[in-house]
């Protein structure tokens, strides 16, 4: 489960990312509460707009961000983006502490952070393949998710308590300091132990080549469809957890942070279970989507706060199983020279779909109640599972047969004559 931690470069990367991720979750929680309960009168739609501005650049800048990751030194790109995000966190924190912060200021900082994050994401994801071998890549991807969600257990709870005690401005400044851990980890890596992977050759048409590669990989197309549906309508955790905590159960920022941390228990479990698998498979992705839909449905029906809190554990578990399996599948089945562009497209669809879904989910919460926003999340998971089942049925030419002479009378057969190739993108 932890075999990648034996590698020196990955070990310091993991520790630096863990500290930085704690700060990131602290800022996210404080920012959500700043918008929802301080700058507005419990307006879930305003939270959706912030999420849309922060994640929208993923859609617009994805082709160029992926090309940057495939062309330039990813380590230097990450140093630039990490320092930039630290500066943005400090700016917002000082603005809040000075008492001059308004909603439009948060919108502006969210947009700027989204632009930097759009460049950071494909470089960060594809840089892992330079730190570990191809054999250890699925394990490293899963451990990255465990780090991110382990931080989610600590960050939101700490941010909730600090927001109540000293206000969100100080939380933003603490996040600025945590970026130093990631910068230090990047600087301390042993360059001689990093893998040298091929870069995209110069010339025109490199962005188009990445899109063409995905076009002729139907398995990748289905993974992208899955993460678009669930990412757009299902993974708006900040919107429906804040709405359930404040509007449905009448709680404060401390409980909001605690609920995020409780869900992270399931998220860490999902990531660690994924780390045990040697190879990610499509059935884990679509099976987890269906289970996520059922878990969200149960959360929507929770009669009180504590049952709702417990129901968030399976929500986090199946959401992370889906995300980690999808991420590892895309990375391990994509040829290295295309990896940055494909991962940029992956994150554009995964995170960039939220600008479409978050305001809709926020509007549903405002108009019909927080429980219905969870109903939207449940529907996204169940629909994705059905789509995956239908695609697998058709792609593998499955047929259901009944034979009364057989011990197991009902069985499946396949007329498929060849499997999907992972390296050759031709039709």
Following the backbone from N to C, one meets helices and strands in this order, namely HHHHHHHHHHHHHHHHEE
Q: How many strands, what sense, and barrel or not for the largest sheet? A: 2 strands, antiparallel
Rough shape?
globular
* Widest beta sheet: strand line-up: 1-2
Strand content: under 5%
Report helical residue fraction.
Answer: over 70%
Mean pLDDT, all residues = 81
Radius of gyration: 22 Å
Number of helices: 16
Separation of the first and last Cα atoms: 36 Å
Helix vs. strand class? mainly alpha
Number of strands: 2
Unreliable stretches covering 5 or more consecutive residues? 416-427
What does this entry look like structurally?
There is one protein chain. This protein starts with 7 loop residues before the first helix and ends in a 13-residue tail after the last strand. It is mainly alpha-helical. A two-stranded antiparallel sheet has the order 1-2. Helix 1 runs antiparallel to helix 5 and helix 10 packs antiparallel against helix 16. The longest helix is centred in the N-terminal third of the chain and has 32 residues, at 8-39. It has 16 helices and 2 strands. The protein has helices spanning 8-39, 44-55, 57-71, 74-97, 103-131, 137-165, 168-188, 206-215, 218-233, 237-248, 253-276, 282-300, 305-333, 339-352, 354-368, 370-395, and strands spanning 398-402, 410-414. A hairpin with a 7-residue loop joins strand 1 and strand 2.
């Amino acid at each position: 489960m932890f075999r990648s931690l034996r590698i020196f470069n990955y070990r310091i990367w993991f520790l630096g990312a863990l500290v930085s991720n704690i700060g990131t979750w602290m800022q996210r929680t404080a920012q959500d509460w700043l918008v929802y309960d301080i700058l507005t009168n419990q307006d879930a739609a305003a939270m959706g707009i912030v999420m849309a501005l922060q994640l929208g650049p993923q859609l617009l800048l994805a082709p160029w961000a992926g090309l940057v990751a495939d062309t330039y030194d990813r380590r230097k790109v990450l140093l630039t983006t990490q320092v930039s995000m630290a500066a943005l966190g400090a700016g917002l924190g000082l603005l809040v502490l000075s008492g001059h912060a308004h909603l439009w200021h948060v919108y502006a900082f969210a947009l700027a952070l989204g632009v930097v994050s759009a460049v950071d994401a494909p470089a960060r994801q594809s840089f892992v393949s330079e730190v570990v071998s191809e054999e250890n890549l699925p394990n490293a991807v899963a451990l990255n998710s465990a780090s991110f969600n382990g931080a989610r257990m600590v960050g939101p709870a700490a941010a909730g308590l600090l927001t109540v005690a000293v206000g969100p401005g100080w939380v933003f400044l603490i996040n600025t300091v945590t970026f130093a851990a990631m910068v230090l980890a990047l600087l301390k890596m042993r360059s001689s132990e990093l893998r040298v992977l091929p870069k995209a050759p110069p010339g025109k048409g490199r962005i188009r080549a990445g899109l063409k590669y995905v076009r002729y990989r139907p398995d990748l197309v289905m993974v992208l469809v899955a993460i678009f549906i669930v990412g757009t309508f299902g993974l708006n955790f900040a919107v429906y957890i804040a709405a359930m905590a404040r509007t449905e159960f009448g709680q404060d920022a401390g409980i909001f942070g605690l609920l995020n941390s409780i869900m992270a228990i399931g998220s860490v479990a999902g990531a660690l279970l994924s780390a045990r698998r040697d190879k990610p498979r499509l059935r884990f992705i679509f099976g987890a989507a269906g289970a996520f839909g059922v878990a969200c449905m149960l959360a929507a029906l929770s009669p009180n706060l504590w049952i709702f809190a417990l129901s968030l554990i399976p929500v986090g578990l199946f959401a992370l199983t889906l995300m980690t399996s999808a991420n590892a599948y895309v990375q391990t089945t994509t040829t290295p020279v295309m990896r940055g562009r494909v991962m940029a497209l992956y994150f554009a669809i995964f995170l960039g779909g939220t600008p479409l879904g978050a305001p809709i989910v926020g509007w549903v919460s405002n108009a019909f109640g927080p429980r219905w926003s969870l109903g939207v999340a449940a529907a996204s998971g169940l629909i994705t599972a059905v789509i995956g089942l239908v695609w697998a049925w058709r792609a593998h030419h499955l047929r259901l047969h009944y034979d009364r002479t057989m011990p197991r009378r009902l069985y499946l057969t396949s007329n498929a004559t060849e499997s999907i190739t992972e390296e050759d993108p031709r039709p």
